[in-house]
Structure formats: C-alpha cells, structure tokens
Amino acid sequence: xxxxxxxxxxxxxxVNDFFLHSPxxxxxxxxxxxxxxxxxxxxVAGISSFxxxxxxxxxxxxxxxxxxxxxxxxxxxxEPDSTHPIASLTKIATSLLFxxxxxxxxxxxxxxxxxxxxxxxxxxxxxxxxxxPDIIRLMMMESDNDIAxxxxxxxxxxxxxxxxxxxxxxxxxxxxxxxxxxxxxxLGLLNTNFINPIGxxxxxxxxxxxxxxxxxxxIFENRLTIWHLSRRYHASVVYKNLDGKMSExxxxxxxxxxxxxxxxxxxxxxxxxxxxxxLSFIYRLKDGRAIGVVLLKSQDRFGDGEKIxxxxxxxxxxx
Length: 319
Fold this sequence. Notes:
The protein has helices spanning 17-20, 30-34, 90-101, 112-115, 132-142, 145-159, 169-186, 209-222, 224-228, 257-260, 301-313; strands spanning 63-68, 74-78, 83-84, 107-109, 129-131, 207-208, 234-240, 246-252, 264-272, 276-284, 290-298. The protein has a 5-stranded antiparallel beta sheet with strand order 2-1-11-10-9, sandwiched between helices. By secondary structure, the protein is an alpha+beta fold.
C-alpha cells in the first residue's frame, strides 16, 4: 500500500541557482518564466471563474480544483470544499515544514523508529545519513513513509530547540503534527487537519481540494525548490553509511505522467484505502502560465490527470 498533501516557523531560505536550473536546461525562475512576483501567496477562496472554449472532460475524481498558480483564478472545480482523506498528499505539508525549519545543508540519520513505520519504505538503511534535499526528494518522488518519519522527527526536535537523538521520538512526532496544523491554519487552510506526517488513514486526517490547491500555490510562490525536487521521473540519491562510505540508489517517481508530459513542474501522488487515489500537480502551458491541479477520491488519477492536461493543452495561447 502506498500513500496521498499539505506545514511552523519560517526559516525562509532562498531558492538557489542549483534548483532553479532543471536537468533539461530550462531556467524555471518563478519571476521570469511564470510571471510570479513573489512576496507570498494570497489565500483567496476563489477569484472569478475561467471559461474554457472546450467542454471539460469526464473524469472520475469526486472532488477537484484547477486554477491559475499566479492569479488564483479558478479554471474548474467540483466539491472543492468537501473534506476527504488525502493519503500521501500529506507529504506536501511535511516537506514544507521540513524546508522551513531544518537546515538544507546538513545530513540526517535514519533512525530505527523511522524504519519501523508502515510501508512504503525506502532502500536507505537504518543508521545511514541522507542530505536534506534528498529527504524531500524521497518524500515527494518516491513517497517513502520512513523518510517522512525521519523528516517529522527532525522537525519536532528543531522547533523544540532540541536536536539530540535521545529526545523522545513520539514526542518529536507530536510536536511536528501540531506545527503542521498551526502552519496550514496560518495560511488560511481551515478545512485541513493532520494526525500523522505520512498520510495514513484516520478520521481526523483530512483536507479539501481547495485547501490543497492553495497549499500547492503557496509552495510554488515561496518554496519552489520543493516542486523542483519532485519533478524528475528518475533520480539518484546518495547516502552515508555508518562506516563513512558513500552509497547510491536510484529512485522512480510515483507519477508516470512526468515521463510523457515534461511541462509538469512538480507533483505528488497519494493512495490509501479510505482516500482512494489522489494526485496533485502543476502544469506549465505553452504560453508559460502555470496551472495547479488537485484530484481527490479518484478511481483513475493518472487517466484523469492526462485528460486534464490534454484539455489544458487545447486552451488557446494567451496573447
């Protein structure tokens, strides 16, 4: 069973040039390519709707939200404020908190407790050390639950000004959950609540398509590195063994659409029994506009996503 997001203290690291330049050589500067002027996302409950010249495709998602990442204009929505389990989409929020509260220049140990969590698990062994960017990459690309637990453990210690490995593991996780809830509520996402940093099913773990859209939008405008770390289909991750030697593993994105649609800027998948299939992604139109898509309770998330991309591509170019 694999898993579907969305985190408290602003660390405010700048997006560096390494992450702004994608592997295909395209400069993905927010201001130059997408027209975003920065300064923070505006949590708008729904600006004016957009009228597409072609009918919207028939998709299976019970709830969804599609909108412009820059203006917030709604392109299409269905039951956007109904709350649902969101599975590993939760890791979007976990990644946000990790990025904002943890040094991105250090390496972090994979604890025994993290490796004992419910699968899906990474190939990183217990006791190994992984870099902060690779922690986000493993959460967002491969959706590894053990790595989300590693991130949550480090967040909990950091926000309590405790970094010692002997701090109670469960206490650190609970501190992180409290921080995640405080952070999304600070952003105005009031239909969202977390009980765990992974996305495991729980009656008190939920969000809405609209809330998730504005979480995706906030990260797009303010923490673009997170989306860059999610955008490849294949990637290599390096870790330090206990003996100090370096090892490397290959990972594969859980979203196969990235292979066929290179204008996907970033994405996150989710899947649990209660949540069903979930998917969130940002798609760049041919004219440079970025469109955010959140699909919840889908029976065919990748089929739904592909239909939406084709619908977006049929949109006349902005003059």
